[in-house]
Amino acid sequence: MGKLVSQISIRWEGEVFQLFLSPNHFSNICPDIIHSVDLVASQWGSVDSIILWNYNIEIIEAVNYENKSIRYKVIEGDVMQVYNEFKICVDVSAINEEENLVTWTNEYDKKSEAMPEPTLILEAGLAMTKQIENHPIIFPN
Description:
The protein has three helices and seven strands; from the N terminus they run βααββββββα. By secondary structure, it is an alpha+beta fold. The chain is globular and about 45 Å long.
């Protein structure tokens, strides 16, 4: 199983973790990265809820409210053409009252060693997180 981890610090006075529990706003916040996010089954933010992101369908495998961590597992879509298994974990920790550290972890099993590392997926997560900080509705200046 491969693993890529990256972190980004964002200035945010609100509850960043809530955005990842209910990601339906991401297509408005960063439409260049996320074209659409729809709830397929269950309810936003609950374990076993199934979410359709653009080209992939993910299930929330675990939510830890105390540690502000959420783990998604891709169950269908373009990613599954390249990987046998693909999981995304997002952890949010407060640095201070106005700043949060968001850690993205991709765990994956390539179908073939010739397949690329999922660096573009990790970079998209970081870019999406940065756009949260700059979104006028989410974070008014």
